[in-house]
# Entry
Amino acid sequence: MHVGPVNILDRVLYAGLKNNVGFTSQEFVEAFQFSLKKTRELFQVDNTYQPFLIPGGGTSAMESVTSLLKEGEKVLVVTNGVFGDRWVNIFRKYPIKVNVLSTEPGYYVEPETIEKEVKKDKYTLVTFTHVETSTGVRQPIKDSVKAVRDYVDLVVVDGVSSVGAEEVKAKDWGVDVYLTASQKALGVPPGLGILVLSERAMERLKDEKSIAGYYLDLRNWLPVMNSMENGKASYFSTPPVHTILMLSEALKIIIDEEGLESRIKRHEKVASAIRAGIEGMGLEIVAKKPEAYSNTVTGVILKKTNAGNVLSEIVSEGVELAPGVHPKLQGKYFRIGHMGWVTENDAIVTIASIERVLSKLGEDIRLGEGIKATQLYLAK
Ligand code: PMP
# Structure
């Protein structure tokens, strides 16, 4: 129950267990081609959007956004945690101007606040984090994009902890770059950054000038994407071949077998069951408003126990949780990741184990009330 990498289906892992697949092999090209097509469905976009699969993960996908920016341009980063702040750390390495709108952990930045800011100044690009993994807070992304769409050239959303588990409609919402990574709700090992770019974003790639470096300049990756989508091998830099074979299998399950809508509903149900359990045992969730609860990550605030002790104890119960990483709440909370292939029974095991461990550590909880609330929710 970590926040990624998450547990992986055997079927997905086996798809990558190949000892003789090179980047020009037919099998790999077909897996790449299939993954590119399914990536469009994943982000709910049509052929006007260009998908990219690049090595790395969330951070490489984020940094590749510099391909769309020119020296001196101004960007606005909307952040409520560690991964929103990562945009600031990335952009500050480049010759552009960066402004930041942030809020306290547990809250999202209100769309009205964002709208006021973009009306005040000329921003080329605005970034959002759909689900802030450090706290589990979900930004109301549709309304946030709406608030800025008329005032900025490019809207970028980090969907690393949302894509595959939350509703994502990149085209309908008018998002220019939506990105994710392989190791989260897609339930694939780490190694891949996954993005879709709108026509408006692609237009910017036609301009040879940008602040991007070499490896993460999407101009270098575009010919590979085009060629692979047409069923022909192409090289810029060696792709993570085996991760792409696994991604292809995962996307087959996600889109063609489980169905995106059912997958999102499953995440919503497991997440709600876990939150019912946490509240049932008498603990507080980091996200302050129910509309900020996410389908993928729940932060749990402890009253007196050190979070590190909970994490080390609970491993012996067979459950791995994630530490709280927001600097303002360090040691005071832990995170439950509920994404990928999670089931209702995972919710049961997680809540039951948390209750036992917290009770042993002397935390002030209502032992048994958490698991009861989870059961009642699931049986509803
Ligand atoms: N954005 C978000 C919301 C994340 O959760 C993460 C990873 N936890 C990243 C970006 C960075 O991804 P990676 O670790 O794959 O570089």
